[in-house]
Amino acid sequence: MEFNDRITKVIEYTELTPAEFAEEIGVQRSSISHIISGRNKPSLDFISKIKTKFPELEWEWLITGFGEMLINKEENSPTTIQSIEEVKSVKKTLPDLFSLIDDENFGKEENELKSQKNNNSSESNISAPSIEKKNIADSQRLENFDEKQDNSSKKIKRIVFFYQDGTFETYEN
C-alpha cells in the first residue's frame, strides 16, 4: 500500500476533511493535497505529527504499510499514565550518581585502593614491572642526533615552502 493510500485511510478513520486533518496535525492544506495525489513524499516530521496527534496508529503500518493500522488495545493494556507511573517508580529505585560513590574510600589515592584490594584478595600478588624514566642530558641528545645524520647516502631532492596566503615555492636540487 502506497503512503498516499495510508494517509487517505487515516483521514477517513479520523472522519475529518483533508483541510481539517491538515489543521489538526499542524501542516498546510497543500502538503496534504500533494501527498494524497502522490506528488510529494512525506517527511519524518509530517509522519511524527500524525503519530503525535493520533497515538492509536501503529508506527510500522504508518511508515511501511505492514501490519495493522491501529494498535491492538489488548497487547498494550497499560495506559500511558500507568506507563509513566511505572517509569517514575523505577527511577526512584535506581541509585543516583553520588550514591554510587563509596564514602569510605572517597578521596583515597588509586594506589591505596589497589593495595587494599590486593591485600584482601586471594590472588597472587604480582607486581607490575616498574618503568624508569631516564633523564637525557642535552649533550646526549646531540650525540644521538649526530649518529643519525651520519647517513651520507641520502640527499635532498626538493624543498617546498608553503605560505599563509596559499602560495608556495619549490626548490629542487
Properties at a glance:
mainly alpha; two-stranded antiparallel ribbon; 173 residues; 434 Repressor (Amino-terminal Domain)
Summarize the structure.
By secondary structure, the chain is mainly α.
How would you describe this protein?
- The protein has helices spanning 3-14, 18-25, 29-37, 44-53, 59-64, 80-93, 110-120, 138-148; strands at residues 158-162, 168-172.
- The chain is 47% helix and 6% strand.
- Mean pLDDT is 75; it is low at 76-80.
- The radius of gyration is 36 Å and the shape is elongated.
- A two-stranded antiparallel ribbon has the order 1-2.
- It has eight helices and two strands.
- Helix 1 (3-14) packs across helix 3 (29-37) and helix 2 (18-25) crosses helix 3 (29-37).
- With 173 residues, it is mostly helical.
- Strand 1 (158-162) and strand 2 (168-172) form a beta hairpin.
- The chain has a domain at 3-64: lambda repressor-like DNA-binding domains (434 Repressor (Amino-terminal Domain)), CATH 1.10.260.40.
- The N and C termini lie far apart (72 Å).
- Residues 131-152 have a biased composition (Basic and acidic residues).
- Residues 110-152 are annotated as: Disordered.
